[in-house]
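Quick one: structure for this chain?
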Amino acid sequence: MSRRTTRIVVLLLALFAAVSVWNAVTFPVGIGYDEAAHQAYANGLIHHGVFPKRLPPPAGYGNEYWVPPGFHATAGAVSAIGQALGMDNPWKLGRSLNVLWALATAALVFLIARRIFPGRERAQIATLGFFVFLPVVSRMTAMFHPELLSLFCGTLALYFTVEMLARRAFGFRLAAATGASLGAAQLVRSNTIWIFVAVVMTLLVLAKLTPAVRRSVLTATAVVVAFTALVSGPWYIRQTIEFSSPIPLQRQPPDTPLWENRPLSFYVGLGFPDVVRNPLRPSFVNEAIPTVYSDIWGDYFGYFAWTTDQSSATPAPATGNVHRQLVLQQFVGLVPTVLALAGWLLLWGRLRSRRALAEEPELLLVALVPLLGMLGFLYFSVKYPSGDGDVLKAAYLLTTAPAWALAFGAAVDRTIHTRRAEVVAAGFFAVAAAIDLVFLLYRGHSSLGV
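Got it. Here's what it folds into:
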């Protein structure tokens, strides 16, 4: 790696660390996604050794009894240390772990990029830059919530899998590490199942296409599955005994066919013109594309930048400055989003032949994660519709962020061929990153007047 690339990577990681620390320290306690419920879960688990009980609706919607305990055990234990030390807000100490998870994930994303794009430093830098400046990632560092830990565990599993595939090293240690990471991810959030499926599918495809290593690949696959079950299995066995299901229902789905749960506008609505001029709740409610896009690049649901009234589908309006920044974020995210989608299609385009699948199975893994993630997200949001669109939070897709970053890196590498183009692109993305950075740094809720 050249000295120039090293300096850029260090700068990006330092900026990301600074933003993460700032948000973890300054963000008020108690106003993140379901934060009171997660604190109650952690408090009961650490201090009383009990899990949340299943309560009838509507109370049952907020006590997280279906959520695995990995985050609550770790962050709760650290928060208990803060309480023992007499801290005014011990939950902030537990939340500080988010900084470690976020920074470690960024480092893993860069290491994966080096394997996926060997010798192509432009693609490696672009991958890391996309991840570092993705608002949904930095926003979650401010909250007492499991998503960042599940992101780290899932990315760690992707890293070990890419190492296996790129090096053709299907020994016990890498396979066991992959399985343990996947199991740990399942102990944090059950929606990381799509990463497990992507890993197993990729290994099985490679086994089918490469007879020379078929036996070792199948053995590695068995080890991955076994260690995933070994780590996460006890929790799901406990849930099955307690609730007659490994993943008990958060809410009762409608008694209608799946395809009737959502109108056509849910799938194809683009939210114009509000997606540009008013990208916040309750605009384009229950239109999936603009809601997810606005929540990735801005703060559609208003937990981070502009209100504290999460209980209302029509919360207090954002102030003028915050509103302008949210509108600006829609434009900041447009080019990176288009490039990430284009790069994802490029990856699939490179995998059209059996030979390409056999020679570069790690690309199949990267391409599968967004596909399976979007399908899982779509199934959940259609099966369990909500009137206020709450099930469309971009945080539910957070574990696909590393794969989208890699797709963005692939697109940048493909479209920039000259030194002049590289300078122009670097200038454009530097300006976009500077604008984005203003939003990423938490500056106080407008409704709090701070």
